[in-house]
User: What shape does this take?
Amino acid sequence: MAVKVTTFGKFSDTIVFSVLLTNREGTTAEFLTLGATWHSYSSNDKYGNMVDVVVGPKDLKGYVSQFEDTPYFFGATIGRHSGRINCNGSSPFLSENTLTNNEGIQLHGGRDGFAKKNWSIESINEQIPSVTFSYKSNHLDEGYPGKLLVEVTYSLLEDNTITIDYMAMGTEDTLVNLTNHTYFNLGNEPLVNQFIDIDSRSKLELAPDLIPSGNLISVKGTPYDFTGYGEMKKLQNINGLDDIYMLNKSSSEKPKIKYCSKTSGLEMKVYTDQPSVVVFAPKVICFSGVPKNFDIDYSFYPAICFETQFPPDSINHTHFPSCILKKHNIYTQKTRFSFGF
Assistant: This one.
């Protein structure tokens, strides 16, 4: 079967399902209804070994315990608004609507954002193969006005590409800025031994609380410059990454990010229609439960996350792309992760 649905566990008296997609190459990708989460991606490396390059908990207990400990949002769909919002900002939207926050900042959609919701399986397609998850967010959910219908479709193509297609439509003007929070390691080795190319000349200046000031900073000649397949060993000089890169405008057929491990021979290319990406590569990942990737040293740059999206806090910066979704209009977003050698 190209699509296999099984029970993954139980969360808040609801059943969490796993959806396993398999293409003709034998590559598999697994997704969970909890958080519309990307749980695994397994394909052959250059030696013919099947490897899972998605970093995350092994089981449902690990995901749930992480919510209450250190929320890494492993593989989850983030919404209604990804990243940080300064809820005390100058936007008229924020003066009219009170978003749930922690000391004036909302992160990744609030205290109980989309990552903590058990989504529904809307449809599956054996031919592609693909799965569509849906979630209906209520009026004033985390302070956001209007009801919002959200759908996320994961597809596994025959060329080992994962496509993520997002759709949302609301009954009132609201904020929508969706992304995926999957962590990758292509070589079961520290990131500092790997390489990355980010198609960006600038990143956003951040305050100590990681809220954008609105200013752009050139990355040229700095440790944050990863153009031309820069060595990721520079992460040690900046103690990891949690930074917002503004992507250069270019053809949709040109990858915005290229990431590779010479050890495994695997390369991942990221294509997106979004104007920015939050690149998150922490020095340490502290699991509350058991990780499913046993060979990785989680205390030394273990994984990297590419959150394609509108710039966080764009509601407070008129020169940023607007993340306001007008009522009855349709929000769409598309990001592709292409794997190969």
